[in-house]
Amino acid sequence: MTHTLPVGIASTAVVAASSANLGPGFDSLGLALSLYDEIVVETTESGLQVEVEGEGAGQVPLDASHLVVRAIEAGLRATGFSAPGLIVRCRNDIPHSRGLGSSAAAVVGGLAAVNGLVTQVGSEPMTEAQLIQLSSEFEGHPDNAAAAVVGGAVVSWTEEGAGPGGQPRYSAASVRLHPDIRLFSAVPQQRSSTAETRVLLPEQVSHVDARFNVSRVALLMVALSERPDLLMAATEDVLHQPQRAAAMPASAEYLQILRRSGIAAVLSGAGPSVLGLSSQVGLPAQALEYGAANGFTVREMSVGSGVRWTSGVAARA
Q1: Each residue of 119-167: pLDDT tens digit?
Q2: Where is the GHMP kinase C-terminal domain (predicted)?
Q3: Is 112 marked within a binding site?
């Protein structure tokens, strides 16, 4: 049975950017970053109004096909509610199509905003596990989505056929991040999409390459939580970064410059942004100079928080 939400209630969700893979952990590892989008949803008597500020303004659709709206509708169905009308305001700081989880943030934020609505009428919010499941269904894999839901570093996995209606079941567990690890993001002006770069990957890989990445993922769990001195070796990858390099040469070169400088750099998700992990303070001059000369926005970041929602229109984070 579906219930209709009353007119005039509002909620706010704040959701973090994320970086997936972290080198060898293809489609499995994720890390939330301290860059946030804010979504404000209000129920109205009828219709749909979508407003976008910041990243994506003037570029994304302002109708029911908007990803946040689609997520809100999915969240309403999951909780047994409908809304007579909606105003959806998106205030975006996460760059689009740069490998920083903007689509996962849109979905997770839309779902979380539903939690802020339904709790006002006495209904239970969706659990963390439900948010991971629903948001991963949009994405097709849980790495970015799980990081956006939970915050911090996560390892995620998929169980085929174990979910609702025989669909995949998506799950995640948190990984403690060593306090000495510093994060640096380098975001180029170039855009990319996971769909475009995924076709560059082979359907099959050799036993040798699979073994190499398995060993590096295992080592990365140790490096992230206990031994940051192992990050360089632990972030090596042969399954996806070399294959994507030709499509984003500036990012591939920047990655190598950072690694030669002692920064454990990886492509952020499918790129073209680059993420650096290090226990040292700051970046070497050569890395900063290359970034400035090639249009990268370079900044030090901290670990992002899990998605938050409140009832009403909250002050921006």
Answers
A1: 999 999 999 999 999 999 998 999 999 999 999 999 999 999 988 889 9
A2: 232-278
A3: no
Number of H helices, E strands in the chain: 10, 13
Is 3 marked within a binding site?
Answer: no
DSSP states of 172-236: EEEEPPPTT-EEEEEE-S----HHHHHTTS-S---HHHHHHHHHHHHHHHHHHHT-GGGHHHHT-
- Residue 16 assigned to a binding site: no
* 279 assigned ligand-binding residue: no
Question: Is residue 102 part of an annotated ligand binding site?
Answer: yes
For residue 317, pLDDT over 50 is answered with no
**pLDDT of the residue at 193:** 63
Q: Please tell me whether 97 is known to bind a ligand.
A: yes
Residue 100 labelled as part of a binding site: yes
Write down the pTM of the prediction.
Answer: 0.95
Distance (Å, rounded) from C-alpha 167 to C-alpha 27?
18
For residue 163, the model assigns a pLDDT of 83
Q: Is 105 annotated as a binding residue?
A: yes
Within 13 A of 315's CA, how many CA atoms are on the CB side? 0
